[in-house]
Amino acid sequence: MDLNKALQLPFKDRENAIRFFIGGLLNILPVVNLIPTGYAFLTMRNHITGEPIEDLPAWDNWGTLFKYGFLFFIASLGYALIPLFILGLGVLALHPHVGILTFLGVTLIVVGIVCLIGIILLFPMGMVVFAIDDEFSSFFSFFRIIDLILKHLGAYLRAFLILFVMGIVLGFLSYIPVVGWLIGVFVGFYLMLQTAFFMGDVGREIVGNETGIAPSQEENMAPASTTATPPSETPPEAASEEISEEENDKKA
């Protein structure tokens, strides 16, 4: 998706702006904020498996939105668990200030940071794979995730860097005194939608390469007609007339 189009889509008209505002309001409340999370995820899935997103979808099937938001939350915890556990062990090992334990603690902290960076790089593609397969276990198919990142490295890095820079720039708005927390909530939902657009583009490229056609073309692909047109046959009467005419010509 074009960068300008993606940035402006939530505000391109009154209807889209209202849908964005609803998501921002829901994102304020704990637990309820799983609904806009699921909304953004399903927006990405629709972008991957159907026509390119032109408008924000309507707010319906709230139970489904909450379900996918909850699954997304569980996957986030699953990804974060290992590096946070290693970092926690490293901090605990540093506490006694004993030589060997200090060395072990520093080592664990370094390993934990490396794992955390790896998880940050893998998680968006895990989200894309989950959207394509619609199976929660796909979120943790790490070998497939790494393979897809390597195969689509250019598109993936482009989307990742755009979202990374966007997050840093818009993140400063949350530091505005008094209203920063409220702005941050709406910025958070805005970044969810941008993730849906740009990681959705990566998913469309993956689906297009695996099927040989773009998702939006699948409905337009119809099997060619296998019914052969029967050859025209000359009626027997016409054939006999042609033969008699040829014989008369020969006699003449």
Give structural notes.
With 252 residues, this protein is an all-alpha fold. It has one domain (3-216). It has helices at residues 3-8, 14-26, 34-49, 62-94, 99-133, 142-151, 153-171, 180-211, 236-251. 25% of the residues are buried. The model is unreliable at 218-240 (pLDDT under 50).
User: What's the number of helices?
Assistant: 9
Task: Tell me the domain tally.
Answer: 1
Please compute the radius of gyration using only Cα atoms.
Answer: 30 Å
Task: Name the structural class.
Answer: mainly alpha
Q: Poorly predicted ranges (pLDDT <50, ≥5 residues)?
A: 218-240
From the structure provided, what is the oligomeric state, counting identical versus distinct chains?
Answer: single chain
The end-to-end distance, rounded to whole angstroms, is 79 Å
The percent range for strand residues is: under 5%
Please give the number of β-strands.
Answer: 0
| Percentage of residues in helical conformation | over 70%
Break the fold down into its secondary structure elements and pairings.
Elements: H1 3-8, H2 14-26, H3 34-49, H4 62-94, H5 99-133, H6 142-151, H7 153-171, H8 180-211, H9 236-251
Helix pairs in contact: 2-8, 3-4, 3-5, 3-8, 4-5, 5-6, 5-8, 7-8
Task: Provide keyphrases for this structure.
252 residues; mainly alpha; 9 helices; 0% strand; globular
In short:
By secondary structure, the chain is an all-alpha fold. The protein has helices at residues 3-8, 14-26, 34-49, 62-94, 99-133, 142-151, 153-171, 180-211, 236-251.
